[in-house]
Amino acid sequence: PILRIPMFWVVATASGLLGLAISFSSMWFLHQTGPTTYSLVGSLNKIPLSVAGITLFKVPTNLPNMLSISF
Known about the structure:
Keywords: Membrane, Transmembrane, Transmembrane helix. The chain crosses the membrane at residues 7-30. The structure is a single chain. The protein has helices at residues 6-32, 35-44, 46-56, 63-70. The longest helix has 27 residues, at 6-32. The N and C termini lie far apart (46 Å). The chain is mostly helical. The chain is 79% helix and 0% strand.
């Protein structure tokens, strides 16, 4: 039943194209820098993501939350 809805196909196609674009940009970044930098950036992107999650979802900030982001 959901396969007959045109908007499903639009969203599914857009999702696939976005995934393809992310893969190409990751490979381009790896080509431009190197494996160590790529790995470091992959690790460090978790910090702003965690801070954004705490801010957007209004999670109470306490010592265990902050330590879980730090380590």
